[in-house]
Design a protein that fits this description.
- With 391 residues, this protein is α+β, with helices and mostly antiparallel strands.
- The chain has 2 domains: 266 residues, no CATH class; 84 residues, no CATH class.
- The chain contains 11 helices and 6 strands.
- A 6-stranded antiparallel β-sheet has the order 1-2-3-4-5-6.
- Helix 2 runs antiparallel to helix 4, helix 6 packs parallel to helix 9 and helix 7 packs parallel to helix 9.
- It is elongated, with a radius of gyration of 28 Å.
Length: 391
Amino acid sequence: MPVLLRYCLLSLVPPFILSTGIWLALLNLLYFTNVLIEYLILYHTGIWNCLQFFIFYQPSLLVLAIPISFLTALLIVYGRLSADKEFLALQASGFSAGSLLWPLAGISVVLSLFMVVFMDIVLPWGNTSFIKLDYQIKIKHTSIVVKERTFIKDFQGYILYVDQKEEGTNQLKKVTVLLLDEKGTPYRVVYANEGSLQQDSKYHIILRLEKGVMQQLGTKIDPGYSNLLELKFSQCDLDLSSNSQPFGSLDENSSRNMKIRELAKKIADEKTKKIDSRYDEVEFNKKFSLPFSSLAFVFIGIPLGLITRGGSFVGPILAVVLVALYDGFLMLGDNGGFLGRFSPFLSMWVPNYFLVMVGILLIVWIDHRLEITFFIRGWFKKHPDITGELP
């Protein structure tokens, strides 16, 4: 390995590791803290279960933290090279910025492939493990909180009232359920002679009601008092987990929690049956576009680092701005792809293309306007005996 490339790689490792730790801590504060407080206070999970939740939560955050940290490290290292005049010395020795750009682009491809494998194996494991532990805790907590002749408000969107409960089982007698709208106002009431708490294949908590009646005035969106809807049923299932999803999709078999091969097969089956597969196609492309954001960050991170010359101070700030811009495009593409306004492929890959194109434009501008050469043209200028003096 050339000395210069080895020097840059060794310079990248410390800020990359440090940035990964810092970004991971910030993401945990933003996303995991609320989940931790909920389980500690509401469900009384204990330290061991909270530690397991923490471990299962990390893969979903590492998918975000690693590309961001790679970008931060690039901005810091190349900003320092420019600020300390080291790159100026490299140019004087006949090296161009391109001699560092392309090897790092190759390294970013290796990192991106690693992230694809990570999202295919580790991320689904973390998500499904979190879901299973979440169900075990919530079903145990539900059995405890469901008490006789007490209004139970532990389930978002529902208020439960149970007249009788058989000790040691989940069998309930004379159950009343109020369904709430977004403002917390009851818009539907369900009465049942019998009920039981169960689990479905998606690890949701299901309240199964039998021999009852449902009554509703108006609709959830437009509650009027002129129309009364009454429906008798022999069996009715209410998903008590439907309004509480702190960890993304609570479905173990959702597209987000499936492996790449399984998701590809699901999309092929949907197309064969002519079923709308846009959501699954968006998630499939995301499993590749998000890891390969590291490659896009190389093309824009290196020229930006050389321009700013701010070293360790400006790098993280620029990283936040670029990541916010990237996430904005990603959210727009996520929604647009699902709604059919963009193709699922373009909706997930446009953010990467945008950063690469902006990076290439910066490289061309720097190469022509500043005393920084990205292409081999700068080396030929120092050897007119080989090619002749360029104008």
